[in-house]
Amino acid sequence: MKFTLNNKKPEWIKTRIPNQKILEEMRSLLKDLKLHTICEEAACPNIGLCYAHHTATFLILGNVCTRNCRFCNVIKGKPQPPDPEEPKCVAEAVKRLRLEHVVITSVTRDDLEDFGANHFVKTIEEVRKLNPKTKIEVLIPDFQGSYDCIRMVVEASPHIIGHNVETVPRLYPTVRPKASYKTSLKVLETVKKLNPKIFTKSGIMVGLGEKEEEIIQVMKDLRSVDCDIFTIGQYLRPSKKHLEVKEYVKPEKFEEYKRKAYELGFLYVASGPFVRSSFMASEFSKKFLVKT
Q1: How far apart are CA 51 and CA 127, in angstroms?
Q2: What pLDDT shows up at residue 27?
Q3: Environment class of 35 (CB within 10 Å of its CB; exposed 0-12, middle 13-18, buried 19+)
Q4: CB atoms within 10 A of CB 64
Q5: Do 139 and 104 contact (CB within 8 A), yes or no?
Q6: Contact 187, 216 (CB under 8 A)
Q7: In this structure, which long-range contacts are made by residues 215-218, counting pairs with CB atoms below 8 Å and at least 24 apart in sequence?
Q8: For residue range 167-196, what is the model confidence (pLDDT) as tens digits?
């Protein structure tokens, strides 16, 4: 059954009202350290849950993106130069929050010569220096497929390197007009070839008009480049300026996708209406990184 934006959302898509006290505490910390989170910038529906657990996905390289993905709520435009103090601030935030697992992502910086790769490296190094026991997960942009930029991040040795394909290939011209599905797969493939011990991760949204067989093919494509972790969640329209929701996928369908993904060989799968790429990321740590 399909729903349009003229209909009420189905019962399984319920707004999660965050605890305002917790929100203010986290926002105060982030403001103090002059940091951004993708939780805030992308209007993530899980912000209350994650902040309640004192976790956040830190957004580095500013909060202005050079791409124009039509599903994303992050500001598009001309970014400021990277803040050289940002890596240390992220490390300090991880320390204050006593995080056992941290996720670090960024806007896409096509304006920079290295697309921001060195800034990722510095952030990983600062977090590790101040928090040697914290598991580090980075969610990187495609770096325009640059082997050298991917290699820089791999050599910094985070525990997990993620890069989202976001949707099925057929919808790229509409959903990710400045991106390439083949390039995204190549990013994940390159990480594994450079260091097979690093776990790789990718995810997609559903509800944009994709077909079930296309979703299954994306799973197969990701497994063909040895991707370890897969996430799949419902696309929720941030505003009327963004792409419309074509379909609200039922919870039982997410369970089917989860079973299929495990059958295909993924080590860990998160599948559900509110799942996002960093949703409950620490659960993988507890299961697979506890001894590393």
Answers
A1: 19
A2: 72
A3: buried
A4: 17
A5: yes
A6: no
A7: 215/168, 215/257, 216/260, 217/168, 218/165, 218/168, 218/169
A8: 999 999 999 988 999 999 999 999 999 999
* Alpha carbon distance 127, 140 (integer Å): 16
Q: How many residues are present in the chain?
A: 292
Tell me what the pLDDT averaged over the chain comes to: 86
